[in-house]
Amino acid sequence: MRVAVFSTKPYDRRFLTKANRSVGHELVFFEPRLTAETCRLAEGFPAVCAFVNDELDAGVLLFLSKHGTKLIALRSAGFNNVDLRAAEQLELTVTRVPAYSPEAVAEHTLALILALGRKLHKAYNRVREGNFALEGLLGFDLHRQTVGIVGTGKIGTCVARILRGFGCQILAYDVVKNPEVENLGALYVALDELFARSDIITLHCPLVPETWHLINEEAIARMKRGVMLINTSRGALIDTQAAIRGLKTGRIGAMGLDVYEEEADLFYEDLSDQVIQDDVFARMLTFPNVIITAHQAFFTQGAMEAIARETLANITAFEKGETPPGLITTAALRPVAKA
Q: Of 34, 79, 126, 308, which one has the fewest beta carbons inside 10 Å?
């Protein structure tokens, strides 16, 4: 099957090409993101493979449908960049890779928590400058901290499992309780209670209309003073302006982000020789208690191999007329995290 693969970097091509040797699809790699301006590159391709910052709104989907595309194969777990209702109306099949490596994202979540809690980012820079003083580096024990997990799917469950090993008290919120998380000793509570009681809050829910800006001015006001906020899910779960105000007042004591709501023009590119034009993002970089990574939580050897393998398995199943294992429908647009 001919597949137009967008937003590709050398590592994408390497892992996809290797995985494709056993299935034999015709993969054509495009470096640009898929947008209204670049969708013409996909003319005549029955399948389009897209990533997290590709734009698959109604207009792009209509163009793809009119020019021969039948399958949208996402090589990501998230699908907030796809207008699923438009895809359904156009009879486009949409697939994703929902469980490629929840451990990778969960471990990155804990890395952010530990780095912020022990100020490793500051210590690293100090030592390289010959400064071995400990003043300003006082951390806290993760043991016995109360951690609130918003969203207890596969990644949230992995996070709960790791935190249990650290001896944390775990609070959880989701519209559907996960027995596996309850068996780990987590207590499901209302979202307001989770905000009020948690020392650390970590987000692991999808971005759907009901969860957009889930962390807003009102939510932050209900949190403990000095709370640590972690987001390795989707950037728009957090109202960034509200978070900045929370950091300035001290309501948010530390923040670790692997995602950002306006990341599409920043992440996955080397902008080191340019002035960053996003003033909100630039403001966040000035806080000493904020760590930002560029949407890399998924980026491990094992995860990349699984993403390539599962993406191609979806394409192969579709080509054979079978139900792809990662099929998404509009049923996935259910609310996930409102109080």
A: 126
List for the chain the helix, strand, coil content (%; round to 5). Answer: 40, 15, 45
Q: pLDDT of 28-41, one tens digit each? A: 999 999 999 999 99
Domains of the chain in sequence order: 2-100+301-333 (3.40.50.720), 102-292 (3.40.50.720)
What tokens appear for 112 in the block? 């952010």
Non-local CB neighbours of 102 within 8 Å, separated by 6+ positions: 153, 154, 155, 157, 158
Query: Residues with catalytic annotation?
Result: 234, 263, 295
Q: Is 226 left (phi over 0), alpha (psi -120 to 50) or beta?
A: left
Q: Is the pTM of this model over 0.90?
A: yes
Strands annotated E in 246-297: 252-257, 290-292
Residues 119 and 228 sit within 8 Å (Cβ to Cβ): no
For residue 229, give the DSSP letter. E
* 3-state SS track over 42-96: HCCCCEEEECCCCCECHHHHHHHHHCCCCEEEECCCCCCCECHHHHHHCCCEEEC
